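User: structure tokens for this one?
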Amino acid sequence: MNNTSCPRIDFDFTGRFLPPVYISVFIIGLVANGWGLKSLLHNWKKLGNINVFVLNLGLTDFLYLLTLPFLVVYYFMESKWIFGDTFCKITRFCFNLNLYGSIGFLTCISVYRYLAIVHPMRVKGRITVTHSVTISVMVWLLVSVQSLPDMFYPKTFGNSTGKCYDTTSKIHVEDYLKYSLGWTLTGFCIPFLITLGCYGHVIIVLCRTNTIDKVLKQRSLRLLFILILLFSVCYIPYHVLKNLNLWSRVLSKQRMCRGWFNGVYVARQISRSLVCLNSALNPLVYLHGQEDIPAQLRRLRQQARQAVMQLSVTYSQAPLV
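Assistant:
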């Protein structure tokens, strides 16, 4: 249908929904990434060459987590950005570095795991830490180049207290949709297909071969499960709904209205909450190769119980005043 006005979009949903999610992700993400990086450094030699990628994965998480308090303030103030246009762009740039940096480093981990299982003799002794560092620098550069054009699109609207768009304003939405589709192809689809191909081959090898070490099989299957979780929950819905929402904005601008516009907008905001969960879920990658996580959790629980009992004893033995 082609109308002169489109149905109302529930923009208030974003302000109600995202702040509690951001606060939760900020707290959980800081704790989980801190614990994960501590475990990574403690087991640096045990984890092999992929630890360089895992370390960079943690850095992308911290980079994004530090911007969340500003976004919480933004939404609590009814979507009024008070920190200036430059910092708005920096905040969105940090999100993109986290998102596409995470996808890039997860892809590198998948390729390394693929080589270790499918071609162990060919790569044994040939892949060094220097190679991993060089590839990590290339990932950072590639993600930055992909994200840089986003900085040139207007992000704020109004005077001193306006919007801080995660995409761009209505004026440039057609061009941004084209850029977003290309960005999705290079930043998400290609790495996703590489990861899918690597682990598809890994599964075939694991099923056919009985000589592979049992521990290596378990670690590979755990990592596969984590990657499926991250891509299915965090990355796929975000990219599909982001571009679909941009398309709905283009149609709305052309006065071509559809009944699904509001549903897509709400789903898009939910996908934004899901994609930020990657900063809280990525620590699973740090910990997937460790066999003593259950023991660590039991030890922490036992220590907490002992501390509570000691406090109880101390309190019961204290002299009455």
